[in-house]
């Protein structure tokens, strides 16, 4: 799975939310730094080339839809992040969040409970 740029990822979040959309529909959902229509169209075509998006043609216009689910992308993204930044160690990742005070002891206990229940 190819890595996405920040803008491509933003567009994918919109497509996951809308499920099917024309370029104008996606453009209406962009919050910050709205790209020009043609620029957005190019970004979506790039997503299609990367295998994230496909389309249905309606004459000269295309309705786009995601072919990679948000869950599939999340798994790939997290696996890559853990491999790249935490030496493939989930323990190192959790330790990082604990040190940064991004996860509480109660949340860690909940995670341990989930692990114990899945054994």
TrEMBL record:
InterPro entries named in the record: BlaI_family (IPR005650), WH-like_DNA-bd_sf (IPR036388), WH_DNA-bd_sf (IPR036390)
Transmembrane portions of the chain: none
Alphabetical list of Pfam families matching this protein: Penicillinase_R
Any one GO MF annotation of this record: DNA binding
Signal sequence segment: none
Keyword DNA-binding: yes
Record bears the keyword Coiled coil: no
One GO BP annotation of this record: negative regulation of DNA-templated transcription
Keywords: DNA-binding, Transcription, Transcription regulation
Domain of life: Bacteria
The family this protein is said to belong to: Belongs to the BlaI transcriptional regulatory family.
Protein's UniProt name: Transcriptional regulator
Gene source species: Flavobacterium rivuli WB 3.3-2 = DSM 21788
Lineage: Bacteria, Pseudomonadati, Bacteroidota, Flavobacteriia, Flavobacteriales
């Amino acid at each position: 799975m190819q890595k996405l740029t920040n803008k491509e990822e933003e567009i994918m979040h919109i497509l996951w939310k809308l499920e099917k959309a024309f370029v104008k529909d996606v453009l209406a959902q962009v919050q910050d730094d709205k790209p020009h229509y043609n620029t957005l169209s190019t970004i979506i075509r790039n997503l299609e080339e990367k295998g994230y998006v496909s389309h249905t043609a309606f004459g000269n216009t295309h309705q786009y839809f995601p072919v990679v689910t948000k869950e599939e992308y999340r798994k790939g993204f997290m696996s890559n992040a853990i491999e790249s930044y935490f030496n493939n160690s989930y323990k190192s990742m959790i330790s990082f969040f604990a040190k940064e005070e991004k996860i509480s002891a109660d949340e860690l206990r909940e995670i341990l409970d989930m692990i114990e229940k899945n054994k």
